[in-house]
């Protein structure tokens, strides 16, 4: 039992280190450099008998993660560049942020990974920060564009 607790503690320590590094707060790592190779991870192996989650389910989970400054979810903001769901339920997501200096750049990918990991039928989840192509407002959904106009 203690080995399970130690494993969970190690996972949490690793996530905290990754997050601090991504935010540029660990060992004087420049933020842009830290985010360059940032991968947020969550989840566990999916039981073989469990049905694999659909892309629509993954998208709905991503829509629960919002940028706190503008309160628009990461999917409608156009920050999600790719979703790859493997037969074993593992999910690989390519995500960007609006800018490397975005105050929540190190937080949103982990929130996205955690949200997707809660979806029934998912296994291990990885959300990787990508920079190409660069994000532009044109990537936003029509709904998100209308919300921005309200501000």
- Reading the helices and strands in chain order gives HHEHEEEEHEH
User: What percent strand?
Assistant: 15-25%
Give the N-to-C terminal Cα separation: 51 Å
CATH class (first level) name:
Alpha Beta
Shape, principal axes of CA atoms: globular
- Indicate the radius of gyration in whole angstroms: 16 Å
The percent of residues in helical segments reads 25-40%
> What is the correct CATH architecture?
2-Layer Sandwich
Count of DSSP helices?
A: 5
Q: How many strands in all?
A: 6
Task: Enumerate the spans where pLDDT stays under 50 for 5 or more consecutive residues.
Answer: 23-32
CATH superfamily annotation: Fe-S cluster assembly (FSCA)
Give me the secondary-structure topology.
Blueprint lengths: L1 H21 L8 H6 L2 E4 L12 H8 L3 E2 L4 E2 L6 E6 L5 E5 L12 H10 L7 E5 L12 H9 L1
Parallel strand pairs: 5-6
Antiparallel strand pairs: 1-6, 2-3, 4-5
């Amino acid at each position: 039992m203690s080995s399970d607790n130690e494993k969970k503690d190690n996972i949490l320590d690793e996530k905290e280190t990754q997050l601090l590094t991504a935010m540029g707060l660990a060992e004087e790592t420049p933020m842009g450099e830290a985010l360059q190779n940032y991968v947020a991870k969550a989840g566990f192996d999916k039981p073989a008998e469990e049905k694999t989650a659909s892309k629509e389910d993954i998208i709905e989970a991503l829509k629960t993660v919002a940028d706190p400054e503008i309160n628009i979810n990461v999917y409608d903001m156009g920050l999600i560049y790719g979703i790859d769901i493997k037969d074993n339920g593992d999910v690989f997501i390519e995500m960007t942020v609006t800018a490397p200096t975005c105050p929540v750049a190190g937080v949103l990918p982990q929130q996205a990974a955690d949200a997707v990991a809660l979806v029934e039928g998912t296994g291990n989840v990885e959300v990787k920060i990508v920079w190409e192509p660069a994000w532009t407002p044109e990537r936003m959904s029509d709904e998100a564009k209308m919300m921005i106009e309200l501000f």
